[in-house]
Write a structure and sequence with these properties.
The structure holds 2 protein chains of 2 kinds.
Chain A (H helix, E strand, L loop, with lengths): L5 H11 L6 H10 L4 H16 L6 H26 L5 H7 L4 H8 L3 H8 L10 H11 L3 H9 L4 H7 L14 H7 L5 H9 L2
Chain B lengths: L28 H10 L4 H7 L13 H13 L3 H19 L9 H20 L13 H30 L19 H10 L5 H11 L14 H5 L3 H23 L1
Classes of the chains: A mainly alpha, B mainly alpha.
């Protein structure tokens, strides 16, 4: 069987029950995909709420949510445009938004040196908490995928070469893990380090 | 948005395949029929139909039709049309979100939830490079439930925890307490009607129990693999039965109020 992701499983269950939830079918799906059993059950419950507790909007709510929605739509359109160009630098993107390096570091909740590790892509991408990527994306008003793609690229070849006086690289420098970089940081307080290390 | 020149043959087919069956997604026949009709209209005629909120009217645009039009306008980089079409979809989205309103303590929390989910939905709908949002053109309501279930679960857990704690702090009902009214395997038509009528008057934890009972879920089961209300809400079946007794009290009070 093809490997199913969460969306495939939820869509599959929804299409198997077009008229509404069916506990027997739900059980079949939760048994077949135990890794998604919790999501399937929550999804079915969310459907039950929509089906059995219909609600109406007041005129004031309609106006309010319309404003919020258009704001969201415009932000998404702007983001989509920005996403079409890959991120060249975190600090440059921040500058476009009126944030210098110190302000960017403060907004993201890291020290300047940790920010530079991120900027230079010198951290093992797999070790960077998703929550931090989300935070950076939020501050830079860009998509998480764009920030992830930037951080996952690894150090630029040119930047790496200029780091050494000789043309030959003495040895491959292993990227640091995020946790190590936090622990070694000289600026962050113990509390700040704890918060960063607890990030998922 | 392609208009006039369009025809039923010009409707962009869905490309996503269901992983389990390998079959390509298809829209409902009534949506396909509406699209065939709508692509022959000019832009202003389509916009005029956005004002029609009567679901029984033939002119009422299906959610899936709106999604199709929105994505087509996006493919053509026609932001003005996207902005004209979107508010009606936004209204329908928030109408659905409002079903979850009671599960949030503060209106601001509910708005945060709605905005977060809406932004994710918009992002998916605007992504026309992939077929990730094809499902929204097949079953829009279920597509919305897919996006809400995770965000809503966090708030639900907190409410259920608080209500269950409150329940546990109360003296336990005796084992000889009368059997709960809504515990039969199949709800009778009369009980379904009562539940449907009273559901909006119930606190959120009991509201969810009522919605799940209406959906045919059991409170508990001997079959450990069967999804049950008790497992979904992570509370004991005894707590749920006590909540149902509370529901009957609320209903009785409400009836008493009406008679006064």
């Amino acid at each position: 069987m093809n490997e199913m992701n969460l969306a495939d499983v939820l869509e599959g269950y929804a299409m198997a029950t077009p008229e509404g939830n069916n506990p027997a079918v739900l059980q079949k799906w939760t048994t077949a995909y135990p890794q998604f059993a919790g999501d399937l059950t929550d999804f079915a419950a969310a459907r039950a709420v929509l089906e059995h507790s219909p609600a109406e909007l007041t005129e004031a709510e309609e106006t309010r949510y319309r404003e919020l929605g258009l704001k969201n739509l415009r932000a998404a359109l702007r983001n989509a445009a920005a996403e079409s160009a890959p991120l060249a630098s975190l600090t440059e993107r921040a500058k476009e938004k009126g944030l210098n390096k110190a302000k960017l570091a403060a907004a993201v909740g890291v020290s300047l040196s940790l920010l530079m590790y991120l900027e230079k892509k010198r951290l093992d991408f797999a070790s960077i908490p998703k929550m931090l990527v989300e935070k950076i994306a939020g501050v830079l008003d860009t998509a998480e995928e764009t920030v992830s793609a930037y951080l996952a690229k690894g150090p630029d070849a040119l930047a790496e070469a200029s780091f050494y006086k000789t043309a030959t690289r003495p040895e491959e420098i292993k990227p640091k893990t995020f946790a190590d970089a936090v622990r070694e940081d000289q600026i962050l307080s113990t509390e700040e380090k704890r918060k960063l290390l607890e990030m998922k | 948005m392609t208009t006039r020149a369009g025809s039923s043959a010009g409707i962009k087919p869905l490309t996503k395949r269901a992983r389990e069956t390998g079959q390509t997604f298809v829209r409902r026949p009534e949506v396909e029929a509406q699209l065939a009709e709508i692509v022959a209209l000019d832009r202003e005629e389509i916009f005029a139909r956005l004002d029609n909120r009567n679901r029984d009217s033939g002119d009422y645009l299906f959610d899936e039709t709106l999604v199709y039009l929105l994505r087509e306008a996006r493919r053509e980089n026609d932001e003005q049309t996207v902005e004209t079409l979107y508010p009606e979809l936004n209204r329908r989205l928030w109408k659905l979100f409002k079903s979850y309103f009671k599960y949030f303590d503060e209106p601001a929390d509910f708005e945060d939830f709605g905005q977060k989910v809406e932004l994710e939905i918009i992002r998916k709908l605007l992504d026309v490079e992939t077929d990730a949002a094809d499902f929204a053109e097949v079953m829009f309501g279920k597509f919305v439930a897919m996006q809400t279930h995770g965000a809503w679960r966090g708030s639900l857990n907190r409410i259920v925890r608080e209500k269950a704690l409150f329940q546990d702090a109360r003296p336990a009902d005796g084992d000889d307490a009368p059997e709960p009214q809504f515990e039969s395997k199949e709800l009778s038509a009369e009980k379904r009607l009562i539940l449907r009528e009273m559901i909006s008057k119930l606190p959120p934890n009991i509201m969810l129990v009522a919605a799940l009972l209406l959906d045919g879920w059991q409170i508990e089961s001997r079959d450990e693999n069967e999804p049950t209300i008790s497992k979904m809400m992570n509370v004991s079946s005894r707590t749920i039965r006590n909540w149902l007794k509370e529901a009957r009290r609320i209903l009785a009070d409400d009836e008493g109020e009406k008679e006064r």
